[in-house]
Amino acid sequence: MGTFQNVRWQLAQALEWRWWRAYLKRKPVADYLEEKERYWHRVLEEMDWTVAPGVSVADVGCGPAGVYIALHDRQRVTAIDPLLDRYEGLNVFSRSAYPAVRFLPLMLEDAVDLGPFRQLYCFNAINHVRDWAAGLDALTAMAEPGTELLLTSDVHRHAWLLPIFRALPGDALHPQQHGAGAYRNALLDRGWRIDGERVLRRERIFQYHAWKCTMEKG
């Protein structure tokens, strides 16, 4: 891991915390959480995702209001995020409101010994990690044959902009800059079968991409 990438990741983590604090400052807690839960249900439905009742799952890169808020009473959730302890300072985040959820302040790359899980959720988190390949390796290590993965990330729409954003902090919140093809190849190389792929949101530079996968390798 190069020094530049490590510094870039540390900057992104600091900016991520500041972004959440500013974003949530004027939002009523109850309204935000209700809106967020409706959003999670909508995404799962859009991806034709079946929530397997009662199984062990991981919400990887959960943030202060991850998909665990929609699943805590339906699945056995482990919620992972390196900023969890800092999220204690946000009024929308309360571990005690979700007593069945196991919260772990971990980087994805350090979560290789967790699991295996029956389902994995990784929403808009893989482009926040320090080491992209190691993060995908860790997701794979948390799986077993038959494990289902729902992965989302902003990806570049224009190939010519990708090297520019990698060289310059044009998107400082996201230290990882990749195209959809790179994600697709990385998943296939690690033994994931891609069952579904959708663009959930499209913007000028990025598009928010989702993959529904099943682990095939033993």
TrEMBL record:
It comes from the Bacteria. One of its GO terms (biological process) is methylation. This is 2-polyprenyl-6-hydroxyphenyl methylase/3-demethylubiquinone-9 3-methyltransferase. GO terms for molecular function: methyltransferase activity. Keywords: Methyltransferase, Transferase, Ubiquinone. SUPFAM superfamilies: S-adenosyl-L-methionine-dependent methyltransferases.
